Amino acid sequence: MTRPRAVLAMNPRLVRAVFDEDALARLRRAADIDTELVLGELDSTRSRDALAAAEILVAGWDAPVVRAEHLPRTERLRAVVYAGGVAATCLEDPAAFADRGVVAANARTANSGPVAEYTLAMILLANKRVLAEERRYRASRTRPDHFGAYAGRGNYRQTVGIVGASTVGRAVLALLRPFDLDVLLHDPTLTAEQARTLGARLVPLDELMASSRVVSLHQPLTPATRGGIDAGRLALMPDGATLVNTARGAVVDQEALIAELRTGRIDAVLDVTDPEPPDPGSELWTLDNVVLTPHLAGSLGGELHRLGDAVVDEVERFAAGRPFAHPEDLAASARTRVW
């Protein structure tokens, strides 16, 4: 069987971070690909010729966007496999490729595990208010009254709210199952029965915000969700509650969040912000009740190899004439368009 021709398109530094030697060898066996050639731009003759010859675009973070002007030179393209969450991010007009029968896959599922693990850790720590207590302990250098100072804390029978049954949201729900927690879920695409199968009780968003000791955000960024966690919903959160955001910064009204955090009434764990990183003068850098991490919940270090293995798995499936394990609907991606 003739191997399909493929080309890499991403930040060149990403190749060795994502694909170990075994993965690169598998990729070369499955496809006719020069793994030393990585398209970081599409303006040179060499890059455009490589794109024109490719049947599979193996893309990743910082991939150059295939624009309308490139369409006439992508007639051979049949598949896009993306080492990240949304393959359509490297296509200016995903629907145009979908109309031509181009199929896509992404490594979102492979990346969901680390995000879910980070989220679980932060939920369990937040319910004990560990980070705030660490600061208090360091400052006071005295033992607290364990029987009087910690009323309402801990993970036993606490209420945790999950916003969005996305790939990551579902992974978080699965990790929460062993714990004695009351888990609420808001997702307008699910029925109550579907939520129960995920181990949660489906509720309206306002009820979730008002009832949860920890609210963890996992909804996609779309025009409908942008700024949806606004001042009114933040005000619903109980005193001492924690907001965890590993989704996208813009699903939260940033000015409203800072105003609420400024009061000290709630805490926040923010792996994403809008903008990212926050402006140098943002109060998010200095507020004591904020844990701010640099978008590290997802795969990093050795975890990136899981993404590389997932990408090679998909290329092998395509080369063998089998369907993708984790397909992406390019037409649907084109309709939402904000990620």
From TrEMBL:
Pfam entry (one): 2-Hacid_dh_C
Highest rank taxon of the organism: Bacteria
Cited SUPFAM superfamilies: Formate/glycerate dehydrogenase catalytic domain-like (SSF52283), NAD(P)-binding Rossmann-fold domains (SSF51735)
InterPro entries noted in UniProt: D-2-hydroxyacid_DH (IPR050857), D-isomer_DH_NAD-bd (IPR006140), NAD(P)-bd_dom_sf (IPR036291)
Record key words, sorted: NAD, Oxidoreductase
Domain called D-isomer specific 2-hydroxyacid dehydrogenase NAD-binding: residue spans: 120-297
Family: Belongs to the D-isomer specific 2-hydroxyacid dehydrogenase family.
Protein name listed in UniProt: Hydroxyacid dehydrogenase
Species this chain originates from: Streptomyces parvulus
Higher taxonomy: Bacteria, Bacillati, Actinomycetota, Actinomycetes, Kitasatosporales
